């Protein structure tokens, strides 16, 4: 797997969320996919329940719809700092990849906090057009507490 293509995919992912172009976020996934936000503590205990969970692109689209029209939360946005991906293994055209992240949350009043750190554990493969897309993205957060509603994707 070409690491530069993985860097490009991660940069597009972060930019989509950071610029609040949420409707484009599901397009970075295959139709059949898994997206989950969990904690390192849960993973270590074998209880990988998700704070956020979707098992199809349609569920990701529903998440965006809810974010835009139904969820009520304090205005905020994110800024991602994404590290370099490392390919842990490959099976056929699918790569298992791990990428560290840091997310700064910016509240409507301008206050900035480190919101989350962790790593993305991904399965990535090309779509029909040859563009890399996520088959699976699990955001494993180092901390186990979030001080606000988790509304925006990680």
Furnish the topology, listing elements before pairings.
Blueprint: H1 3-18, E1 29-39, H2 40-44, E2 52-54, H3 57-69, E3 76-82, E4 86-91, E5 94-107, E6 112-126, E7 132-141
Parallel strand pairs: 1-7
Antiparallel strand pairs: 1-2, 3-5, 4-5, 5-6, 6-7
Structural description of this entry:
By secondary structure, the chain is of the alpha+beta class. It has a single domain, classed as Roll (Nuclear Transport Factor 2, Chain: A). 22% of the residues lie in helices and 43% in strands. It has three helices and seven strands. The chain has helices at residues 3-18, 40-44, 57-69; strands spanning 29-39, 52-54, 76-82, 86-91, 94-107, 112-126, 132-141. Strands 1, 2, 3, 4, 5, 6 and 7 form a seven-stranded mixed sheet that branches. Strand 4 (86-91) and strand 5 (94-107) form a beta hairpin. The longest helix has 16 residues, at 3-18. The radius of gyration is 15 Å and the shape is globular. It starts with a helix and ends in a 13-residue tail after the last strand. The model has no long low-confidence stretch (mean pLDDT 91).
Quickly count the domains. 1
Envelope shape = globular
What is the quaternary state of this protein?
A: single chain
For the record, the CATH architecture stands as: Roll
Radius of gyration: 15 Å
Distance between the termini: 24 Å
Low-confidence stretches: none
Q: Count of DSSP E strands? A: 7
What do we call the CATH topology? Answer: Nuclear Transport Factor 2, Chain: A
What is the helix fraction of residues, given as a range? 10-25%
Structural class: alpha+beta
């Amino acid at each position: 797997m070409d690491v530069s293509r993985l860097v490009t995919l991660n940069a597009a992912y972060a930019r989509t969320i950071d610029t609040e172009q949420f409707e484009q976020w599901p397009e970075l996934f295959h139709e059949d996919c898994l997206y989950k936000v969990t904690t390192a503590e849960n993973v270590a205990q074998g209880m990988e329940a998700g704070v956020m969970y979707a098992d199809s692109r349609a569920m990701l689209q529903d998440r965006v719809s809810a974010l835009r029209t139904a969820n009520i939360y304090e205005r905020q946005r994110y800024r991602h700092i994404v590290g370099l991906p490392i390919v842990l293994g490959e099976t056929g055209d699918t790569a298992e990849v791990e990428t560290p992240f840091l997310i700064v949350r910016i509240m409507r009043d301008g206050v900035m906090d480190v919101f989350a750190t962790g790593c993305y554990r991904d399965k990535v493969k090309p779509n029909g057009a040859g563009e890399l897309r996520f088959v699976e993205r699990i955001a494993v957060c180092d901390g186990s507490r979030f001080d606000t509603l988790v509304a925006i994707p990680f």
